[in-house]
Specification:
The protein has ten helices and eleven strands. By secondary structure, the protein is an alpha/beta fold. The chain folds into two domains: about 90 residues, Leucine Dehydrogenase, chain A, domain 1 (Rossmann fold), CATH 3.40.50; about 120 residues, Rossmann fold (3-Layer(aba) Sandwich), CATH 3.40.50.720. Helix 2 packs across helix 10 and helix 6 packs parallel to helix 7. Bound molecules: guanine (GUN). Guanine (GUN) binds next to strand 4 and helix 6.
Amino acid sequence: MTGVRIDGKIIAQAVKDRVKQAVEELKKQGINPCLATVLIGENPASATYVRNKHKACEEVGIITKDHKLDANITQSELTKIIDELNLDSTVHGILVQLPLPEQLDEFTTTSRISPLKDVDGLTPHNAGLLTMKKAALVACTPSGIMEMFDYHKIDLEGKNVVLINRSNLVGKPLYQLLLEKNATVLTCHSKTKNLTELCQSADIIITAVGDRNKFTLTPEMIKDGAVVIDVAISRFQEKLVGDSDYEKIIQKASFATPVPGGVGPMTVAMLLKNTITAASLSTQIGR
Ligand code: GUN
């Protein structure tokens, strides 16, 4: 049996089409949605991601403000820039690209962003609201994955989901979103025992390790008809790869995402959606 390819480019385009319409509506109300990005240092992968985010904003009519900062910037200098963006009423969303250089603390940085402009859903305020099913701004990769389930009408109720990631950007928010849909969710990580057996019993596997030297999800590790969402993207043997080989996995899975062209485009599309949400929130508080 060959499964169905979950094509992130197609689903992302459907989201972008809706965002484009919302941008036009907001512009009629005199609001020009604007995303400010902050990129620190010279990490080539991060630079590519930010470039892609700008390009996507342009496609749907969202304005961007680009802040490229020196790799050696201090925490207090960065905090000052975030504070300025928080106060700038023409900016609706703020994204600080991660990972940060060593001298900067991720929590200090992300929690400084105004929760109303937190398009990554990373502030304690928005992460807390998510646990109570009240978040307006949710981390982009997790909400993009939920959009993929929705698009393909993949029912989550009562399903056993194995999540291989526990980060603030992916694993933790996904856990909450899946739980909201009545899935039974198991969060696995580098210290998890019997990962193979746990994967073999899962209806859905969502994997985001990103290092093939440490982990590969093989067809032997999944049951017939499982759904496999591969969030990872890394360079391995001169190629961009996920945690699994799509062509092999799809022979056994009912649905699977390719890498590239799977989850990646969804992350960008949901960032656009969050920027629109943040721009709408700004009208509700009269800013
Ligand atoms: N680095 C990798 N993914 C992301 C993301 O979704 N947001 C931010 N800010 N940084 C990232």
